[in-house]
């Protein structure tokens, strides 16, 4: 897909600081187009996760604007942003961030119920995804009973549930063996080919090498 295609996600002049006058990043601008997988790299602590939270509409930037499908989202309410997250974005957190009180199946199904999808169809889809990533046998387990690599794959299933236009992933292969990492990369590629923009924060050289473009923070 051409880099001149219309951006599905864009950051314009973004800055963020946890403390006043101490920016993790500033004046950061970038556009992400459908079909592309971008690696976000940089030394530990440079702000990759923080930037993904801003691009993923979980954290509001200190300055600048995020555009989703060409529309600025800064003036939207928290509720409107939550709706966009559920319907347009998929996010794979570094630590999976599964809800410990729910079963694996409910963790994955939850996002599509939020956008009022039919439960039966959602369960079928969730089971299909869990099977694809080799974790279907854990559907009735709780997050505290599974391995880190299983949790990462389940978090990816959850992110893929709603066919997101933008898929953001924070170190998605950190706990995976080579074979599982290849399956995960295949899923990113497929989602990109279906028209999503994919942004992956990673230190994994093998994963970086498979991305279309690299941005260093
Ligand atoms: N909640 C927080 N409060 C204050 N400072 C924070 C917070 N979260 C992160 N930081 C700081 O912000 C900076 C960027 O952190 P971030 O986690 O975004 O980096 P990263 O590039 O993703 O690192 P890593 O590769 O180790 O995951 C670091 O200096 C970190 O210590």
From TrEMBL:
GO cellular component, one term: plasma membrane
Stored InterPro entries: AAA+_ATPase, ABC_transporter-like_ATP-bd, ABC_transporter-like_CS, ABC_transpr_LolD-like, P-loop_NTPase
A Pfam match: ABC_tran
A GO molecular-function descriptor: ATP binding
Keyword line: ATP-binding, Nucleotide-binding
Source taxon at top rank: Bacteria
Record keyword Nucleus present: no
Domain ABC transporter: 9-217
Family: Belongs to the ABC transporter superfamily.
Protein name (Swiss-Prot/TrEMBL): Peptide ABC transporter ATP-binding protein
Higher taxonomy: Bacteria, Bacillati, Actinomycetota, Actinomycetes, Micrococcales
């Amino acid at each position: 897909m051409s880099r001149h295609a219309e951006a599905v996600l864009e950051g314009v002049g973004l800055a963020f600081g946890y403390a006043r006058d101490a920016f993790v990043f500033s004046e950061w601008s970038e556009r992400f187009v459908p079909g592309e997988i971008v690696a976000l790299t940089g030394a530990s602590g440079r702000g990759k996760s923080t930037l993904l939270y801003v691009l993923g509409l979980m954290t509001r930037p200190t300055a600048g604007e995020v555009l989703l499908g060409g529309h600025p989202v800064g003036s939207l309410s928290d509720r409107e942003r939550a709706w966009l997250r559920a319907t347009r974005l998929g996010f794979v957190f570094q630590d999976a961030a599964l809800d410990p009180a729910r079963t694996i199946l409910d963790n994955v199904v939850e996002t599509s119920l939020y956008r009022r999808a039919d439960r039966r169809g959602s369960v079928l889809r969730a089971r299909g995804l869990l099977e694809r990533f080799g974790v279907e046998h854990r559907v009735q387990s709780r997050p505290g009973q599974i391995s880190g690599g299983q949790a990462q794959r389940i978090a990816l299933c959850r992110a893929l549930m709603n066919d997101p236009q933008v898929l953001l992933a924070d170190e998605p292969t950190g706990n995976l063996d080579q074979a599982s990492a290849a399956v995960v990369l295949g899923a990113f590629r497929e989602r990109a080919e279906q028209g999503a923009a994919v942004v992956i924060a990673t230190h994994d050289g093998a994963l970086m090498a498979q991305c279309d473009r690299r941005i260093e923070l």
